[in-house]
Amino acid sequence: MLAPGSLGLRSLLSIAALAAVGLVAAACGDDGPSVSTTGGQGGSGTGGAGTGGDGAGTPGDKPTCLDPDQPASAVPDVRADSAAALSADGTAAVLFGGDIANVVCPNIPPKMPVADTWVLDVGCGQWTELQVAGPSARSRHSMVSDHSRNRALSFGGRWRADPNSGSYTLYNDVWAFDFASQSWSEIATTGTGPEPRYNASLVMAGDEMIVFGGGTATSATSFDPVNTVYALNLTTNEWRQITPAGAAPAPRLFHSATYDPVNGRMFIGYGSDNSAFTTTQFFQDQWALDLATSTWHELQIAEPLEVPYGRIKGAMFFRPSTDGVEPDWLYQFAGHDDAATVDALGNRNDVLAVPLPPGASLDSLGPLQFQIVRAGDVFESGSTGTCQFPANFVTYDFESPERRSAFAFSTTADGLSFFMFGGDSDCDRLSDSWWFNTSTGAWSKVRESLPGLTCPRTNGGDLAACAGMCG
Q: Which pick of 122, 152, 277, 386 has the fewest CB atoms within 10 Å?
């Protein structure tokens, strides 16, 4: 099996040394998309040399389709700020809710949260919409897989009646989707739980669901993020607040989180505070919470400190060592970067990873040196104005998904693979789905869907046929 370090990964430091131009990010506030107006050089090609996909039998491959001749199903509406989770065996995914409003740059879109539930046959790419009772309509909720019970857990989110204005209703309810019965049930919790919030992170830590951070404002003009930590015992359904020792991460939302089941620690990183969409300066810090000692540890990033990029609305996941000798790996995928670095791009589709010595204590970790598994698209030509991008704005990595943020995301039980769906692109919202194998560093399409893709991705890479990046 190929570990990330054996795939010819390139250090981010070498990328930062390349010639570059700046990026100025324009934004439409909480109720609108964040838009790149120029771009920065970020390298070329992909960093991963492996190949993967169906039928190879490589650990981490996408599940095999058992009925390849069935007619193609419908696909969920394009959406962002939705959530999804994989079944225990990784052959099915459940998708719930999200915002299905179309985004036409530079207009501020209305909010259109929905309450639909879809189940995906991952191997065949077949979607089925379930007509079942479940959580109310919402977006910016969070989901995580409870693999031991073969179910998905949903927490929080927000909704408002008027698509264009008004205060939001926030949620702190917990729902469980059972993959066997394909039904929802609300979990009646006890104890003092987290206040209603959205864009919180969820991880499973043994038999507890851990909630960190998120926004608590009902207004569309502020976020009021928090940095509190709560744990829900899934045997007793009782909440408890965790009050860690030591300095803590700044309050945040739009961050990423993952759990290390071998060493019992939660990693969090990135995100933003109330300044999101105003300063376009996002967090780039990395933290770990040791759940055995209830202690936060800030992790150092190797110089230069401007990499990895500050970013929001991406994903983080942990791949444990397969033999106790090779390193554990902490991965980061996509999201929207800020304007602080020379090779900032806006929405990204890169896959980064940092090696962690197996079993090493948090205090013994040296500066984190992120490496590139897949560089994804890289800057080529600047825009001519807000929302005006040439077809060659980037050099495209056509073997990777569209650049995106605010997508639905879930990892497999063994940590070797992840699944993702939809999100925000530079050209609208998306409804495609993909599978990534860490053993090979390769992507596999789960279900293709063209809306929201850049023009070169919809016409076989023929840039000459595209008047601009979006058509």
A: 386
Adjacent-strand bridge partners of 429: 424
Distance of alpha carbon 471 from alpha carbon 414, whole angstroms: 40
- d(CA 334, CA 406) in angstroms, rounded, equals 9
> Does the model's pTM come out above 0.70?
yes
Cα gap 285→307, rounded to integer Å: 10
Q: At residue 12, what are phi and psi to the nearest 5 degrees?
A: -60, -25
Please confirm whether the linkage preceding 110 is cis (ω < 30° from 0): no
Which residue is listed with tokens 């860690």? Answer: 244
What span, in angstroms and rounded, lies between the C-alpha atoms of 127 and 279? 39
How many CA atoms does the CB half-sphere of 239 hold within 13 Å? Answer: 18
Per residue of the chain (471 residues), what is the pLDDT tens digit? 344 443 333 233 222 222 222 222 333 344 432 222 222 222 223 233 233 334 447 899 999 999 999 999 999 999 999 999 999 999 999 999 999 998 877 777 889 999 999 999 999 999 999 999 999 999 999 999 999 999 999 999 999 999 989 999 999 999 999 999 999 999 999 999 999 999 999 999 999 999 999 999 999 889 999 999 999 999 999 999 999 998 999 999 999 999 999 999 999 999 999 888 776 679 989 999 999 999 999 999 886 544 567 899 999 999 999 888 999 999 999 999 886 655 678 899 999 999 999 989 998 998 988 899 999 999 888 877 778 889 999 999 999 999 999 999 999 999 999 999 999 999 999 999 999 999 999 999 999 999 999 999 999 999 999 999 998
Given a contact cutoff of 8 angstroms between Cβ atoms, the answer to whether 284 and 302 are in contact is no
Tell me the CATH class for 4-465.
Answer: mainly beta
Q: Is 295 exposed, middle or buried (0-12, 13-18, 19+ CB in 10 A)?
A: middle
Q: 299: which strand partners?
A: 286
3-state secondary structure of 311: strand
